[in-house]
Amino acid sequence: MKKSFFVLVTVFALCAVGFSKEALAAGSDISNTLIYAGESENTLNPILNNHGELPGIIFSGLMKYDAKNAPVMDLAESFTYDDAKLTYVFQLRKGVKWHDGHDFTADDVVFTYNILAHDDSLTASIKSNYEDIDEVSALDKDTVVFKLSQYNAAMLDNFTIGILPQHVLKNEDIATSSFNQKPVGTGRYRFAEWDTALGAITVERNPDYYGKRPNIERVVYKTVAVESAKALMLQSGEADLAWLNANYAQRFRKDSNFKNIDFVTGDYRAAAMDFRTDFWKKNGDSIGVLNYAVDKQAIVNGVLNKQGRAAYSPIQLNAYGGNKAADIYPYDLEKFAAGMKNLGWTKGSDGVYERNGQKFSFTIQVRDYEEERVDIARILASQLKEAGVDMQVAPVTRFDWSAGYNGFLAGYAVEFDPDGAYANFVTGGSQNTMTYSNPEVDELLKRGRHSKDSEERRKIYGSFEAAYALRPGHLLVAYLDGNYVSVAALSGLDTTRVLGHHAVGVMWNIEEWTLSR
Known about the structure:
Elements: H1 2-16, H2 21-25, E1 33-38, H3 53-58, E2 63-65, E3 71-73, E4 76-82, E5 87-92, H4 106-118, E6 133-140, E7 143-148, H5 155-158, H6 166-169, E8 189-195, E9 200-205, E10 218-223, H7 227-236, E11 241-243, H8 246-250, E12 258-263, E13 267-273, H9 278-283, H10 296-302, E14 308-310, H11 333-342, E15 346-347, E16 353-355, E17 358-359, E18 361-367, H12 371-387, E19 390-396, E20 407-413, H13 422-425, H14 439-450, H15 454-470, E21 474-480, E22 482-487, E23 490-491, E24 514-515
Parallel strand pairs: 1-10, 1-11, 18-19
Antiparallel strand pairs: 2-3, 4-5, 5-7, 6-7, 8-9, 9-10, 11-22, 12-22, 13-20, 13-21, 14-21, 15-16, 16-17, 23-24
Helix pairs in contact: 14-15
């Protein structure tokens, strides 16, 4: 009777999220379908969407990350590196099939990396990761050679990107191809359907997968923007798993019908300042001092329900990060006032600081449906106002980069190699959308990328943290824990892995998950 009840609930839930009637009619084991209340998506292409859950289970890379966030073999069976020639040679797995039945070959790898390294029309946040690839070629159908222009310590991490099928995309514009919504990969799950009207993406277990095949037959990924909706979907039986903000997750902690699974993440929240705007072009020297005016621990305790920690560095929770010498801004309004005075700011009659005839007044945008970010932004604004800084918060449905806002309430993560900070903070980096520029930071990030000694790299990234703290582009606030909630029937989630932005990466071991209902 209990199993029949779960099957009945699952049928209603699957219909609610747009699960295909054909699959239901085919007699599939619908009790073995996971419904995931996830983030909004517009592409499943791993090059264009490198922090989504689905690309990671639809596609495979030459390498993949293990439980400790280290790169290990995936589509690559083995590799060698010749330091004198700056050359990687990869031997590929034999017999791997694309989801459409075509053979996977070295030509697919060459095709993918030529796009990443040499396609000047490509607009992708990860493009800076591949600027050291000079040439990529296939020796035969199972062997790929990468020639670098200089040593890159993070190259194995960069080889984790999902490989694209040449036979599907060779004559396509990668930015506009329908492939981005109907992908063909080599991963654990294959794309089945995207019902845009109902916001449901269905993927099915790949019967030809070369590794361990997942226990769960099917995943229905429901694209949900509003945070409260995810919690309601769990409560109503319309979802089996969701990443929730700390306060919504708290509601499930004493309910035996659910499990709370808490991950450490590298995901931080900050006011990211837009250096394209006149205000920060003139006043970028005054971002660091704002830290003295922010009671970050109060925000962690209140907004995050103590599920996180105060932030002082963009790589603070990275294996190479956490330099305490960079933690130079305690909450101290007297130090804030002294710092403002040293920078030439004085309080006007309205209590707001002024310099050179300009008020210390700026506006950041925040997406209105992300409740946690809105709360962080508003408390941040309130604390700064008390100190004499006018930070206006502009709620928007979508970020508007041409409206003249002075920044946005941002989230980023550097959970793997610390070189993940390069694209975001080096001058001209492919993810440096706010055009932050600091010559000392540039030099340290380049040295960190090209250093061969791990202990030397650790020192370099510690120096990066210290240099960034003195002249930051972000007003860092807090790191978030990854608070997942699942139905009690789901097991196998492994919290060893440090997760990324929006706690992405939870499905890293989905082949070990089981649904018992």
